[in-house]
Design a protein that fits this description.
About 25% of the residues lie in helices and about 35% in strands. The protein has eight helices and 23 strands. It starts with 16 loop residues before the first strand and ends with a helix. Strands 1, 2, 3, 5, 8, 9, 10, 11, 12, 13, 19, 22 and 23 form a 13-stranded mixed beta sheet that branches. By secondary structure, the protein is an alpha+beta fold. Strand 14 and strand 15 form a beta hairpin. Helix 2 crosses helix 8 and helix 3 crosses helix 8. The chain folds into two domains: about 150 residues, no CATH class; about 270 residues, Anthranilate synthase (4-Layer Sandwich).
């Protein structure tokens, strides 16, 4: 396994990468997540399609306010030197990187990683990409890839509050509501964390498999220890078209279908949730507008039903006019942080987050996803997520706070948002 450059020097160069993509003959019923070995796995999956990879052909770490620009420069230099033979020519074939970025300028650690092996699937087409420095044969191109053994379940998992317990976090929410009522800002997103500790190191492939099975409508991801199943697409750019799925406004499901339908109707009429949602949609539309020749912003949201919660959702779409010069990563930078994860006005809200939230978000709520050599790619928001480090997993959940927010209701919403990862750490 090779590493491209010192992790503290994003300007360092990478040797020429040799890339080959071929069609892969694999049973269409085989879940891509089941192919992952333990060697630095990465994932980006939804409804059976997407990308998985392992090994490291090249990587770079960046930080601070220039983390996106430094990563983008490194990627441009890497792709310019690469020798690519791509027999598939689908989005995600050829040379691709996976990335995860810190929420805030400081502190924070961001990463782009190029795997040695990538397996992708779109529709009926599955492909294999090998990436190496100097043309090293990583796999016999005529060989097949088969599912790996079932990873071991986590052992002896216990949960504890993270930076703030529930009571202290509710007091922070009440403080934010008072500031909103005073006119300091319109909305702020406040997050809290939960710490899971096992008696043995946890194999990240276990929760990834559970999330893929339980949340097929979300994007299940893993990059450099950050994993989860996000329902929110920050930005997708594909062949000149750009889309963004905005979520804001949440209600917990009960498990009773009739009751949940009634709750969905309540959510769709809730002035508090509609106000929160409007802020988020407006921030995304404003950020994309300079890059689009045309854009469609629906007048009203729809209700997205997930196993644990329901959200107000809006899909913003546009035609980009600067695809030759602006990559999907640059669009993600322009959109981050949206009002859905920061607040309104964004500079005031993010300053308040750093002042009162009481924890380091790290890469929670930052962009996570992948990009190919053309700059096309998909970047989600790292929600319903956690960071794994040996036997410890740090889970995150956040809630949009507006003038009508009640601290007790926001705490219940945060608890509901812990459920996907929390359940994924349990038995099958």
């Amino acid at each position: 396994m090779t590493s491209s450059a010192p992790t503290d020097d994003p300007s360092a160069t990478v040797g020429a990468l040799v890339v080959r993509t071929v069609r892969l003959d694999v049973d269409a019923t085989t879940a891509l997540v089941n192919l992952l070995p333990t060697d630095r796995p990465v994932t980006w999956l939804r409804r059976g399609e997407g990308l998985v990879g392992w090994g490291v052909a090249a990587e770079v770490r960046t930080g601070g306010s220039t983390r996106f620009a430094d990563a983008g420069k490194w990627w441009s230099e890497t792709t310019a030197r690469a020798v690519v033979r791509d027999e598939i020519n689908e989005p995600g074939s050829g040379l691709v990187c996976f990335g995860s970025f810190a929420f805030a300028d400081e502190p924070g650690d961001s990463v782009l990683v190029v795997p040695e092996i990538v397996v992708g699937r779109r529709g009926d087409t599955t492909w294999l990409t090998t990436i190496s420095q100097g043309g090293l044969e990583l796999l016999d191109q005529g060989s097949t890839i088969t599912p790996t053994d079932e990873p071991a379940a986590p052992v002896g998992v216990s949960f504890a509050d993270g930076a703030l317990d529930g009571e202290r976090w509710m007091s922070v929410v009440a403080d934010a509501v008072a500031r909103i009522s005073d006119g300091d800002l319109e909305k702020v997103v406040l997050a809290r964390d939960l710490v899971a500790t096992a008696t043995e190191p946890i194999d990240v492939r276990w929760p990834l498999r559970r999330l893929v099975e339980s949340y097929p409508m979300c994007w299940t991801f893993h990059v450099d220890g950050l994993f989860g199943a996000t329902p929110e697409m920050l930005v997708r750019r594909e062949r000149g078209l750009v889309t963004s799925r905005v979520l804001a406004g949440t209600i917990r499901r009960t498990g009773d279908d009739d009751r949940d339908l009634a709750l969905a109707a309540t959510l769709a009429r809730s002035s508090k949730d509609l106000e929160e949602h409007e802020y988020a949609v407006r921030s995304v539309a404003d950020a994309l507008d300079p890059h689009c020749s045309s854009m469609n912003v629906p007048e009203a949201p729809f209700v997205l039903h997930l196993p644990n919660v329901m959200h107000l959702a809006t899909d913003v779409a546009g035609v980009v006019h600067d695809a030759a010069t602006v990559s999907s990563l640059q669009l993600a930078e322009a959109l981050h942080p949206s009002a859905a994860v920061g607040g309104t006005p964004t500079p005031v809200a993010t300053a308040l987050i750093s002042q009162i939230e009481g924890m380091d978000r790290a890469r929670y709520a930052g962009p996570v996803g992948w990009m190919d050599a053309s700059g096309d790619g998909e970047w989600g928001i790292a929600l319903r997520s956690a960071v794994i480090d040996g036997a410890t997993v740090r889970l995150f959940a956040g809630c949009g706070i507006v003038a009508d927010s009640a601290p007790e209701a926001e705490l219940a919403e945060a608890q509901a948002k812990f459920v996907p990862v929390r359940d994924a750490l349990g038995p099958a």
